[in-house]
């Protein structure tokens, strides 16, 4: 073929189409001119196209670089924060996005190849944008279950993940993604890009990043432990996480897994044999870990991180911190299991409402929160009853009354306290079941939860001093509204939280040393640097002797005859019950809430039970008594401490064990002698007693009065009136210690010279007899309303507070009838001794 025949078709077409006038010279010249012009135009257009393309490329690259810089803050991925227990074992995680970032070296090659084969087979050859894939995507959509990938590269998907959080698709956004993808490729290696990609993408069920997904689905933290079928399952999720979830849609997941394995084989990453084995394999999933555990503890940690260390919740849950706590995982687990057991609690109310409860355990060694629960069926950010103020009842007596009496006012466990029915100004408290013994030792007053004794002591030591001691032990009171005697029985304006109560009792357990309550030991950032750490030092707030004597007395509470025997464990325990009785007519034998606060040498715990709001109509009140909280204490503490050593409460060096006072007299007898017109009292001598205090009252008198002190077991009473009937009792004395009261002996004095005789059928009376036949104390009793029933003392603003009898009469009142005995061990009830005086805030 000659050169003439090879001319371009356009010229041939033009010659053919010139028509009949082609022979005219003028027209021929014009056509030649147009051809040159066209060629020139094409050249110019081509040049302009090249310039535009180059300009567009430069613009894209510049825009990509600008986007990278503008979004640099988004490159730091939100990471889950890990929570560790006291043994530095991971127990749970905090996250907005459940993500754990892994380094490039931690990702096995086969895992990377699985995603490359599935999502972007030309990943290692393109520069961020795969034009071939884009073209194919525009021509034809992916055939269902086919091996054809979409138009976006892995780099583009990464750019999209960084730039946008929603799946909207627009031309502008696709162009922006492409621009940033090219910039990413310029600034990063391929391994850096795919590592970032695998750390960011979503894998369903709240898992972000390949490590979180591996732990969720297979329970594997080390990605190198993943087998081929597990790798393929993870790669299958990239296309549609929820659709191909092996938990939600196991069959669809298996089908998509087969596609991934086929693609991996086609790329030469696995052999046909490996493909078949992994396709046929039965996938073994980890147990579902989606349920968040230890929610009260987590909320407590989050709150402490913000209020104490200034780390806001948003920062904490996304910063990839490691938070080391004082949690004992076993104790927390045991507590939550107990609170899921309905049998441990009062039956549901008439309308089906569950009675509520909360509990906290503290470590006596450093104040660490061992375990905590804010309520039954507690959920994240729920109302936390462990940190909410509630009326503490008699559990407050050791805090506001007895600690101060021992610490600064010269009392000891065997000091005798008034236990006679009496009023203090306008405040007239009652003992449970209106049982009174006249006098009781401080030990017995605590053991039996005597209300009158506690109020009498507070009246003696001064309300202000009791309030100061409460604040010293970590429970500040309202300076105006709480300035009354009802605080002796836990009638508080604002109440006290279970955490505060446990913290205060922990001081008794730790020899008077006060530790700051805390859950966080230290906080380590994602780079491994400790950024916050607990460093508060403990301080001595009570004498060791005060703490020791309180502990000895509180130990008696769980012994027979005490109000908290249901808390007795197979190891030394001390504690105190508490309850707040209802005041409404017909309901006074029930309570609004009940407590037990107790401790072993290692741990202190507080348990509260009650309804958030009292509703008498629907049965929203407590019928089981504080013995039930004692039982919950025992249930949790026994199991939580099962593997811990059984330690004793040790007596501090330099602190003497007080000698137990002489035993009480049980054979007091009275006889009227006509010749001397007097009453002779006789009794058996009490070993080691140095004196005997004789008390008497007539039927016409309200209270017993001391009528004499002798050093031998006999007394002659001549100050008698014919026709009157007299009652006597004797208290043995050993040094400063007083023994228990004797039986009460009664005699009627004759009028006409007849010999006096005791009333018929009246034997010795034991005023300390237990309240019921089986010797079970009120708070042990299974009968409804069992408890120490602190009456309607005080008000309170808590959700279950009730109006009460009100407080005392303000400061500077004088002590009157029924005043306390102070430091004078020989002062009779209601008779002020030399050093027996009401405090400056006393109420007469």
Automatic annotation (TrEMBL):
Query: What GO biological process, any one, is recorded here?
Result: peptidoglycan biosynthetic process
Its recorded reaction(s) are:
[GlcNAc-(1->4)-Mur2Ac(oyl-L-Ala-gamma-D-Glu-L-Lys-D-Ala-D-Ala)](n)-di-trans,octa-cis-undecaprenyl diphosphate + beta-D-GlcNAc-(1->4)-Mur2Ac(oyl-L-Ala-gamma-D-Glu-L-Lys-D-Ala-D-Ala)-di-trans,octa-cis-undecaprenyl diphosphate = [GlcNAc-(1->4)-Mur2Ac(oyl-L-Ala-gamma-D-Glu-L-Lys-D-Ala-D-Ala)](n+1)-di-trans,octa-cis-undecaprenyl diphosphate + di-trans,octa-cis-undecaprenyl diphosphate + H(+); Preferential cleavage: (Ac)2-L-Lys-D-Ala-|-D-Ala. Also transpeptidation of peptidyl-alanyl moieties that are N-acyl substituents of D-alanine
Give the Basic and acidic residues compositional bias ranges: 832-844
Task: Supply the Pfam families for this chain.
Answer: Transgly (PF00912), Transpeptidase (PF00905)
Q: Where is the Fibronectin type-III domain?
A: 661-752
The residue ranges flagged as biased composition, category Polar residues, are 11-21
Q: Where is this region: Disordered?
A: 1-32, 561-580, 750-844
Q: Which domain of life is it from?
A: Bacteria
Kindly list the GO CC terms recorded for this protein.
outer membrane-bounded periplasmic space
- Biased-composition ranges, Basic residues, are 23-32
List the biased-composition ranges (Gly residues).
792-822
Give TM segment ranges.
Answer: 38-62
- State if Nucleus is listed as a keyword: no
**Entry-linked PROSITE patterns:** FN3
Alphabetized UniProt keyword annotations:
Carboxypeptidase, Cell membrane, Cell shape, Cell wall biogenesis/degradation, Glycosyltransferase, Hydrolase, Membrane, Multifunctional enzyme, Peptidoglycan synthesis, Protease, Transferase, Transmembrane, Transmembrane helix
Does this entry carry the keyword Membrane? yes
Please name the InterPro entries in this protein's record: Beta-lactam/transpept-like (IPR012338), FN3_dom (IPR003961), FN3_sf (IPR036116), Glyco_trans_51 (IPR001264), Glycosyltr_51/Transpeptidase (IPR050396), Ig-like_fold (IPR013783), Lysozyme-like_dom_sf (IPR023346), PBP_transglycosylase (IPR036950)
Identify its protein family: In the N-terminal section; belongs to the glycosyltransferase 51 family.
Q: Which PANTHER family match?
A: BINDING PROTEIN TRANSPEPTIDASE, PUTATIVE-RELATED, PENICILLIN-BINDING PROTEIN 2A
| The protein's name | PBP1A family penicillin-binding protein
Could you tell me which species this protein originates from? Answer: Paenibacillus albiflavus
At the highest ranks, the source species' classification is: Bacteria, Bacillati, Bacillota, Bacilli, Bacillales
